[in-house]
């Protein structure tokens, strides 16, 4: 796969991940934390704010892999 195409796909995946993850995290927060206090909200958003990094790291690792040699 050409490096430019790989970077384009990786960029699109990262943007889609952030948008979808933010929508899901916000929807869960609104549905489940409506009656909770500010400490629970802080803990939830701190945890979910860090959790999206794990799939993003996988995408970035894939982007950094060297291209396979053509044999």
Architecture overview:
The protein has 71 residues and is mainly α. It is 79% helix and 0% strand. It is built from 3 helices and no strands. The chain has helices at residues 3-32, 38-51, 53-64. Helix 1 (3-32) packs antiparallel against helix 3. It is elongated. 0% of the residues are buried.
Low-confidence stretches: none
Report the radius of gyration as a whole number of Å: 17 Å
Helix content: over 70%
On the 0 to 100 scale, the average pLDDT is 91
How many beta-strand runs? 0
Largest sheet properties: none
Q: N- to C-terminal separation? A: 14 Å
Q: Tell me the strand percentage band.
A: under 5%
Given helix and strand content, the structural type is mainly alpha
Sum up the overall morphology in one term. elongated
Instruction: Enumerate how many helices there are, as a single number.
Output: 3
What is the chain-wise order of helices and strands?
HHH
Features:
71 residues; mainly alpha; 79% helix
Question: Topology of this structure?
Answer:
Elements: H1 3-32, H2 38-51, H3 53-64
Helix pairs in contact: 1-3
Explain briefly what this protein structure is:
By secondary structure, the chain is mostly helical. It has helices spanning 3-32, 38-51, 53-64.
């Amino acid at each position: 796969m050409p490096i430019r195409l790989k970077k384009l796909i990786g960029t699109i995946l990262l943007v889609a991940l952030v948008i979808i993850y933010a929508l899901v995290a916000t929807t869960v927060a609104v549905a489940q934390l409506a009656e909770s206090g500010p400490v629970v909200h802080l803990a939830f958003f701190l945890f979910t704010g860090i959790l999206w990094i794990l799939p993003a790291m996988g995408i970035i690792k894939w982007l950094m892999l060297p291209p396979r040699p053509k044999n």
